[in-house]
Amino acid sequence: MTVEHENFARKRRQTREVRIGKVPVGGESPVCLQSMTSTYTHDIDATVAQITRLAAAGCDVVRVAVPDRKDTAALPEIIRQSPIPVIADVHFRYQRALEAVAAGAHKIRLNPGNIKDRRQVNEVIRACRDAGIPIRVGVNEGSVVERQDRAVRASEQEQLARGRDHNLVQLMIRKLEEYIRIFEENDFADVVLAAKSPDPVVVIEAYRAISQRFDYPLHLGVTHAGPPETGRVRSIAALATLLAEGIGDTIRISYAADPIHEVEDGKELLCSLKLRCRTEPELIACPTCGRIEVDLFKLVTEVRHKLATIRAPIKVAVMGCVVNGPGEAEGADVAVFAGKGRGVIYVQGEQVRTVTEAEMLDALYEEAVAFAERVKRGEARLSGDEVAINPPKAKPRP
Ligand code: SF4
Question: Which among 43, 118, 244, 390 is most buried, taking Cβ atoms within 10 Å?
């Protein structure tokens, strides 16, 4: 990691620390990556199978919905089998929260606005304090406008009509302050805050404002972002902006898709911002241009699949030519420069092989595996962006 990278990672806003099971959130802890299961929680086998996949992909903690008694009844077994801490997501029925706490949930997610009776919220807070677990307190754009009280609802909608984005942020902050007051009156500070919206600009403004008012850890997310194809940019635009400003202690990217995509993209975001160390290969590939002489898109897809078997953070470059490729691939541990039916392969700046186009995929993979093994044995070091690559020599080494 360069000095700039270390400074960037250190620039994070200081918050209190809470613990979700064995995972610390806030304080000096790394940004925690969350996802949520899409199974019926009462289907224990399906839920545990999905949690296990998410954990293997890099998910730190997982949230499960508990709308019914049968869901909280399934929690003890899910928690017993889960490799990562489990958060119970509660809406409307405070009994579900109490049952989840009794079942051993590592955290409760609660929107106090959905539970009208203050005594019931107090009861949940007491139960969480006794169990020593945190509560995530959230407002969502979709639930921030009052639904039950007509007069309050009319006044809040009128306020939004006067200037939606700004007033929506103000409304979200006001509700959050109301909720936090309940927790502070109960002398309960084991809290994580969230204020989500489908609009990335609202999310950025809301979290900036919240981070200036409170020192509770923040859970970032763009809600209802849609499928990965459309939700990816929307989510990353907001989360990357905030994380780059040092705001955010835990994140969830939410998609209308298999939650594995949430974890894959969240992990890539954190690795790209140097907020998480890579444990797997990083692939660099040129975008191609009019100089291309091989089917590079096909090659890149195949290389990506093959590299998934390697468990070392080596940097691999797949470049379309030797004109600009060497400069663009600087820092790569293993690189191939393709062109005129052949590929020239480099390992840490040394030209090691020239192969035919048909041999390129397997040869690159062999070199990548061999290099990763040398790193594991301590016989080689990762480039750390310091490898210079000169254009291929006229006579490649045999
Ligand atoms: S590496 Fe070569 S083919 Fe690829 S974008 Fe750069 S100049 Fe074009």
Answer: 43
Residue-range definition of the domain harbouring residue 348: 282-376
CATH number at residue 118: 3.20.20.20
What DSSP state is assigned to residue 172?
H
- Residue 130 CB-density burial (10 A; 0-12 exposed, 13-18 middle, 19+ buried): exposed
Distance CA 396, CA 394 (A): 6
Closest-CA residue to 180 (of 210, 203, 201): 210
Helix and strand numbers, DSSP H then E, in the chain: 14, 15
Ligand 1 neighbourhood includes 241 CB (under 6 angstroms): no
Gyration radius from the chain CA atoms = 25
pLDDT in tens, 321-348: 877 767 777 789 999 999 888 899 999 9
d(CA 61, CA 67) in angstroms, rounded, equals 19
Q: Is 326 in the pocket of ligand 1 (CB under 6 A)?
A: no
Residue 292 has, within 13 A of its CA and on its CB side, a CA count of 15
Q: Could you report the per-residue pLDDT of 69-99, keeping only the tens digit for each? A: 999 999 999 999 999 999 999 988 899 999 9
Mutate to test the pocket of ligand 1, among 289, 293, 294 (most ligand atoms within 8 A of CB): 289
